[in-house]
């Protein structure tokens, strides 16, 4: 729940920032000189890109949470079997061991979104966020029946 609140607060701050920047862009456009209109257009592009990025991330998180809920209902969520250091951080060797099992499971069933979901969790535990995201995107695509690139 804490992560959801943090995400919502961050998203609200970003939307406020986009509105603020957008209003400055409009003010620059209204000035009417070639230089200010050019800057105004450039300034208006930034909030558009930011809103698109925020929307795509929100959709990704929503879909990943839907998959987690579905997997939980099936009893297929990965069990936290990782060893932890006294500080509470995940032991690297333990994460690597679980990752190897999840990778083998996914290689055995490459068309199963559940395996890709569990692999994404293993990547995340191994602190490989870019690959975790790609694995989760693949799980979402497989779940939704969309074509998946090899």
Any overview of this molecule?
The chain has 150 residues and is an all-alpha fold. It contains five helices and no strands. Helix 2 packs across helix 5, helix 3 runs antiparallel to helix 4 (113-125) and helix 4 (113-125) packs antiparallel against helix 5.
Features:
single chain, 150 residues, mainly alpha, Tetratricopeptide repeat protein, transmembrane, transmembrane helix
Biggest sheet record? none
Shape: elongated
- What proportion of the residues form beta strands (DSSP E)? under 5%
What would the average pLDDT be, to the nearest integer? 92
The helix content is over 70%
Radius of gyration: 21 Å
Secondary-structure element order, as H and E?
HHHHH
Walk me through the topology.
Elements lengths: L1 H30 L2 H41 L17 H17 L4 H13 L3 H16 L6
Helix pairs in contact: 1-2, 2-5, 3-4, 4-5
Protein name: Tetratricopeptide repeat protein
Keywords: Membrane, Transmembrane, Transmembrane helix
Organism: Streptomyces nogalater
Would you summarize the structure shown here?
The chain has helices at 2-31, 34-74, 92-108, 113-125, 129-144. The chain is mainly alpha-helical. α1 packs antiparallel against α2 (34-74) and α2 crosses α5 (129-144).
């Amino acid at each position: 729940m804490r992560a959801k609140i943090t995400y919502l607060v961050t998203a609200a701050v970003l939307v406020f920032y986009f509105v603020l920047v957008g209003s400055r862009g409009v003010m620059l456009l209204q000035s009417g000189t070639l230089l200010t209109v050019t800057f105004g257009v450039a300034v208006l592009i930034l909030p558009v890109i930011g809103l698109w990025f925020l929307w795509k991330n929100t959709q990704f998180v929503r879909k990943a949470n839907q998959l987690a809920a579905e997997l939980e209902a099936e009893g297929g969520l990965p069990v936290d079997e990782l060893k932890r250091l006294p500080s509470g951080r995940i032991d690297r060797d333990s994460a690597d061991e679980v990752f190897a099992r999840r990778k083998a499971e996914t290689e055995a069933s490459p068309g199963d979104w559940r395996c890709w979901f569990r692999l994404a969790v293993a990547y995340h535990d191994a602190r490989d966020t870019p690959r975790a995201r790609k694995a989760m995107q693949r799980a979402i695509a497989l779940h939704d029946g969309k074509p998946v690139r090899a």
